[in-house]
Design brief:
Number of helices: 12
Strand content: under 5%
Distance between the termini: 51 Å
Radius of gyration: 22 Å
Number of domains: 1
Shape: elongated
Helix content: over 70%
Largest sheet: 2 strands, antiparallel
Number of strands: 2
């Protein structure tokens, strides 16, 4: 085995070990894991028993010429409740691993981990959570409604998790304290997916371009279009991937700078013997 191959194997081993460490660190509290499973179910339960079954005409923002479709407010509410659950949970977990895992990352930096390996581990963890949570949330929704294209709805949930998970990593890289990060995530998720993206509010909004710029617009359109129509969702999927990738790249750059700065500071520290000599002099 060549030197390059050994280096690749060692890097994969480091990433795998660090990924297992993050999973154990995140889910070692069983109450946290239980809440992650219960929150989407509770959201669905509330929406199912508090929204109307009377069909109404709704405009879909990304459909050709904002097509009007007859749908039940209950079905529409269930879609957006699933999106809100997927977006909020993934962004919170991403914020958590970016902030609380900082001290462990610093120790791993001293043990030979590179910034790329640490960043790659966080990326793999977030993507795994996004996929699992998207499928789980979509599966719960399927028990309460019958969308036209179930796979498209699942894709919308996954993309929403990807965009908001990347946003959570970005916020976690910017804010060092957890409170500020949680406030930003909760306020944006509630304002974006929970309110403005819903066609009932969007159709009457005077400044629709602002709503289109928010993170939840394209993922929510993927889910809604797939659930109630046969229109294409390709452009919304591409825009969602671009939107989430921008946040993801920015968060990885900031993390790399932090780890590099920390590593440089460590290399410039004097050894204990040298410090003693300086004191004696």
């Amino acid at each position: 085995m060549g030197i390059k191959q050994r280096g690749s194997v060692m890097r994969i081993h480091k990433v795998t070990y660090n990924l297992l460490f993050i999973i154990k660190e995140t889910f070692r509290n069983r109450i946290t894991l239980l809440l992650l499973l219960l929150i989407p179910a509770i959201f669905y339960f509330i929406a199912f028993y508090t929204t109307s079954d009377i069909p109404i005409l709704i405009k879909i923002a990304s459909a050709p010429k904002e097509a009007v479709i007859l749908m039940k407010p209950k079905d529409l509410g269930l879609i957006y409740i699933g999106l809100a659950a997927a977006g909020f949970i993934t962004s919170f977990l991403a914020l958590n691993i970016m902030q609380k895992n900082t001290q462990a990352s610093k120790r791993q930096k001293l043990c030979g981990y590179s910034a790329i390996e640490l960043s790659l581990t966080k990326l793999v963890f977030v993507i795994s959570v996004v996929v699992v949570l998207g499928v789980y949330t979509g599966g719960l929704g399927l028990m309460l409604m019958t969308p036209k294209h179930f796979s498209g709805v699942i894709l919308g949930y996954v993309l929403c998790g990807f965009v908001y998970g990347s946003f959570g990593l970005f916020i976690g890289a910017i804010f060092k304290k957890e409170l500020e990060g949680i406030l930003v995530i909760v306020l944006l998720a509630n304002l974006d997916i929970g309110w403005l993206q819903n066609p009932i509010y969007y159709s009457a909004a005077p400044s629709k371009f602002i709503i289109r710029l928010l993170p939840g617009f394209n993922p929510s359109q993927v889910a809604v279009i797939s659930s109630f129509s046969d229109y294409s969702i390709s452009s919304q999927v591409i825009y969602s991937l671009i939107y989430g990738s921008v946040f993801l790249i920015l968060s990885m750059i900031i993390l790399g700078i932090r780890m590099k700065t920390y590593g440089s500071a460590i290399t410039h520290l004097d050894s204990p013997d040298k410090q003693d000599n300086n004191i004696s002099d």
